[in-house]
Amino acid sequence: MKKIITLLLCVFCLEFFLTGCGNNGAAKESTITVAVAASLKNCMDEKLIPMFKEKYPGIKVQATYDSSGKLQSQIEQGASIDVFMSAAMKQMDELNKKDLIDKDSVVKLLENKIVLIVPVNNEKGISTFQDILKADKIAVGDPASVPAGQYAREVLTNLKVWEDVSKKASLGTNVTEVLNWVAEGSVDAGIVYSTDTASNKKVKITAEAPEGTVSKVIYPAGVIKASKNKDSSKKLLEFLQSDEAKKVFESYGFTPSK
């Protein structure tokens, strides 16, 4: 009888070990949800998330993309998000003020540039930010929620043309929408990040924001304080700061933040 009890205990312990640890003693699987600025979609979907999954097969990554302002609002409303990758410090700082971000996890990940784009035919002959008023229709991100729109307003305000531009402006819900409007020829010009134009052959850059007209464009990333998957989330942040990830970001036109 004692032998039978001992055998059953051994079987139970073995089953418990395998259930808790998974195959080959691997860590229990987890799923993390990442809220990502729309301008990072291509490099995340095409390269970085698959690379991360290969390195950490036990961690599944679900990514949602939109303007940083909308993602900030979702986090404030209690959306189940583990990591936030913003296109500006403003949204990250506001979440930090509300004690919704693990402030010790926040890193300044990348830098970008603000550029003026036009359809490839450029019928209006727009070549600089100063002559953007040649356009009949101008696309910018909505400054209320889109960092690219906030940067655009900053540039144009410093150039003393924002008031006139705003009368002609179509406000995009995110930077991808602005890019698509220009590519389709629905507008004569738009203001986006330089990285947005890399994969679109229907638009061209005519100018970068003049020096001194715009704040430094920084992309921060951090772990949401309410995350139930902090260990996995921190692994993702560590990976995004690795040399292999930096090479991918650079291939898409981003500059690793210094």
CATH topology of the largest domain: D-Maltodextrin-Binding Protein, domain 2
Let me know the number of strands: 11
Regarding quaternary structure, how should these chains be classified?
A: single chain
Question: DSSP strand (E) fraction?
Answer: 15-25%
Q: How many domain units?
A: 2
Q: Strand arrangement, largest sheet?
A: 2-1-3-10-4-11
What this model shows, in words?
This protein is of the alpha/beta class and 258 residues long. It is 40% helix and 23% strand. It folds into two domains: 2-111 and 218-256, Periplasmic binding protein-like II (D-Maltodextrin-Binding Protein, domain 2); 114-208, 3-Layer(aba) Sandwich (D-Maltodextrin-Binding Protein, domain 2). The strands form two sheets. Strands 2-1-3-10-4-11 form a six-stranded mixed sheet. It has a five-stranded mixed sheet with strand order 7-6-8-5-9, sandwiched between helices. Mean pLDDT is 91; it is low at 4-27.
Features:
alpha/beta; 258 residues; 5-stranded mixed beta sheet; YvgL-like_PBP2; 40% helix; 23% strand; 2 domains; ModA/WtpA; single chain; D-Maltodextrin-Binding Protein, domain 2; 11 strands; ModA; Molybdate ABC transporter substrate-binding protein
Can you describe this structure in just a few lines?
Helix content is 40%, strand content 23%. The chain has 9 helices and 11 strands. The longest helix has 20 residues, at 2-21.
Chart the SSEs and their pairings.
Blueprint: H1 2-21, E1 30-37, H2 41-55, E2 59-66, H3 68-76, E3 83-85, H4 89-97, E4 107-112, E5 114-119, E6 138-141, H5 147-158, H6 162-168, E7 169-172, H7 175-184, E8 189-193, E9 203-208, E10 217-223, H8 230-240, H9 243-251, E11 255-256
Parallel strand pairs: 1-2, 1-3, 6-7, 6-8
Antiparallel strand pairs: 3-10, 4-10, 4-11, 5-8, 5-9
Helix pairs in contact: 3-4
